[in-house]
Each structure stands twice: as structure tokens, then as C-alpha cells.
Amino acid sequence: MCTYQTVKVALDGAAKGANGWFTLTGGAVYVDHPYHACHEHTVNIDFTNPGDGPSARVAVELTEEAALALVDAIQQALAAAPPGLASSVERRVPVQRVRVASLRKSV
Q1: Distance (Å, rounded) from C-alpha 89 to C-alpha 104?
Q2: In this structure, are 73 and 25 located in the same domain?
Q3: Nearest to 30 by CA among 55, 9, 51
Q4: 10 Å Cβ neighbour count for 61?
Q5: What strand order describes the sheet that includes 57-62?
Q6: Rounded to an integer, what distance in angstroms lies between the CA atom of residue 26 and that of residue 68?
Q7: What is the total count of domains within the chain?
Q8: Residue 100's CB: how many other CB atoms inside 10 A?
Q9: Do 40 and 78 share a domain, yes or no?
């Protein structure tokens, strides 16, 4: 069953696509049928810069378990670094970090 729900997010970073590196300006996350992965449904993540055309896109298709493991790995990496080290702005208020376990839905 497809949810048809897409969560979009503004991004500030870079990605390497088929034509080399490009600046990221946006991302989209959704659960749907994958294009390439051998699963019925996957968590799909698109990293994009629409201003640079269709070649400025990197697509990722992950199982639910892999997506949650990625969220956890990102949180662990950020928790191990000094707050604000990878930030593009100086933070005046400490960042509230949420563990991946709190993101999982109760069954």
C-alpha cells in the first residue's frame, strides 16, 4: 500500500551525482514502490537541486530497517561531535537531540 505522503525538507550540503558534485537545496522522503531495489516498498530519499535540472538528483531506496539504522547512525555521529561543529550557523540555543527509538511508531 502506498502512502502518497512525501515529506520535503530544505537542505544545505552537497551530493555527488552522475555528472559530479552539486549543491543540495532540497530533499524528499516517502514510502513507495522502489524503482530499483528488490522489495515491495522502500523508504525513498531524493536529494536534489531543482535549479540545476534533473541531473542534480541522487535517489536512495532503503528498507525500513536500513532507514532507521541510518537515522541512528547520523544521530550517533552528531552526538559524538561537538555541538554545532557541522552547522552552517552559530547556535545560541543547544540542539535537542532525539533518539531514533522515540521516532518509531508503537505497534
Answers
A1: 29
A2: no
A3: 9
A4: 19
A5: 6-17, 20-32, 42-48, 57-62
A6: 20
A7: 2
A8: 16
A9: no
Please report, in tens digits, the pLDDT of each residue of the chain (107 residues total): 778 799 999 999 999 999 999 999 999 999 998 989 899 999 999 999 999 999 999 999 999 999 999 999 999 999 999 988 998 886 555 555 555 555 555 43
Distance CA(75)–CA(62), nearest Å, equals: 18
Residue whose C-alpha cell reads 540555543 in the numeric block: 93
Predicted TM-score of the model (pTM): 0.78
The DSSP line for the chain is -----EEEEEEEEEEEETTEEEEEEEEEEEEE--SSSSSSSEEEEEEE-GGG-TTSEEEEEE-HHHHHHHHHHHHHHHHHSPTTTT-SS--SSPPPP--GGGTSPP-
* Set of cell numbers at residue 40: 515491495
